[in-house]
Write a structure and sequence with these properties.
The chain has 207 residues and is mainly β. The chain has one helix at 2-16; strands at residues 23-35, 42-43, 45-59, 62-81, 84-107, 110-134, 137-144, 157-169, 173-182, 196-206. The chain has an eight-stranded antiparallel barrel with strand order 1-3-4-5-6-8-9-10. Residues 1-20 form the signal peptide.
């Protein structure tokens, strides 16, 4: 974690020293979330993301992009046995601070861009939901997740690495995709580490 924070701090200092003009952008779109080490029965949990960022050029075709992002994550399981079936869903909302290094490649009416960088996230809300016909009970129940205390359901910090790519048109329109690779253990108890895995697609605009 210390190395991750030092990397982000160094990126901010590099960005602060840049003399080129800074631009700003907003991206939003769909997230497909899962967690590691929970088996192959998972399916993607569909959520959303909204990200505001600054694009700070530090060299020709190369920028640092610090930002603030609201990221929906989670997972989903669906199972059936005999005449019973149930669906379990976990939805988590995380507030993230990413710092990405982005390289632009001129192409056609704009630029292809590729990037990567660390992020630190804080799980700010979450909910588990169970619905279906299970052991004679038919219906739906849900409960809020706890991220602190002795009986917490998930750890508060979700830090890792972002990978992103897409196309930026000359008018500022963005088409982008990304992948968030969580590196911190979200499991508050014993057992295997559980890490977030988030695939995203979206649109945006850079001013």
């Amino acid at each position: 974690m210390k190395k991750l924070l030092l990397t982000m701090g160094a990126a901010f200092l590099l960005a602060a020293g840049a003399q080129a003009q800074t631009s700003y952008g907003l991206k939003a779109g769909v997230n497909l979330g899962k967690y590691s080490n929970l088996g192959s029965d998972q399916s993607n949990n569909v959520s959303f993301h909204v990200t505001g960022f600054a694009d700070i050029p530090v060299a020709s075709q190369f920028s640092i992009q610090p930002g603030v992002s609201l990221q929906g994550k989670g997972t989903k399981f669906t199972g059936s046995l005999d005449n019973s079936s149930a669906e379990y869903t976990r939805n988590v909302m995380s507030l993230e601070v990413p710092v990405n290094a982005v390289y632009y490649i001129p192409a056609g009416a704009g630029n292809v861009f590729l990037g990567a960088g660390p992020y630190v996230g804080f799980n700010i809300s979450g909910k588990d939901k169970l619905k279906g016909d299970l052991a004679g009970y038919t219906g739906e129940t849900e409960w809020d997740l706890e991220f602190s205390g002795d009986n917490k359901d998930m750890n508060l910090i979700d830090a890792g690495v972002n990978f992103l790519g897409g196309y930026k048109f000359n008018n500022g329109l963005l088409i982008n995709a990304g992948y968030g690779l969580g590196l911190t253990n979200l499991n508050p108890g014993d057992g295997d580490n559980i890490n977030s895995r988030t695939l995203s697609f979206g649109l945006g605009f850079q001013f």
